Amino acid sequence: MTKRSILLVFLLILLLFALVVFLLWPREKPPTKEQIVEKFIQTYHTANIHNETTWMGIRTQQNPCDLWAIQEIIWDVKPDFIVETGTFKGGGTLFLASILQHINASGKVITVDIESQIGQASKLALFQERVEFIEGDSVSEETIRRIAEQVKNSKVMVMLDSDHHKKHVLKELRLYSQFVTPGSYLIVHDTSHNGHPLRTSYGEGPMEAVEDFLKENTNFVSDRNREKFMFTFLPQGFLKRIN
What we know:
By secondary structure, the protein is an alpha/beta fold. It has eight helices and nine strands.
């Protein structure tokens, strides 16, 4: 063989060896859809965008996909009342009222917070016409009595977004579930806390409260179809009353 032939054979063997190494070299598996979604949720939350999200100029502290899912539920249920705990600045409350006014001419939002921070929101005509604000403890006997009197014999949807520690959320679930009419929803916010997948060191919170509640109350199921947008701070938090 000529030197040229030997060189070509050597290069061919080297190329074949490189190809075998490439094919057999262990590679990282591509991330799953769930891992991609989880990473996006964590990145979005870390960027603090939810704290800069507003409705009618008022902070909501919610993400747009959850708000979109909620408006779909309002359309489907067509409630007479939406009861909300955890008013904060009132942006989320105004969102509920904005949707409800186009679906139920007499529909109202009853919102509860232990502290009034609604100065800016309360100046808006929509808030004045469609919202009743109750300042007080969401689980106090007086608050529950006032709500019960107003929503009696009405179609009701409930949203829980106040103190997110398990003990409080579970108490709210037990108290407010009585107001939810069959076919309607009890929506629990921030079930993503405590590593689901956010705020890993938070401790037991909304998710753990939901898990315990569903074990003791078979009238409700978690409607995972409402998480179709994938990006949610409310995993397993859309509870539908079936009985």
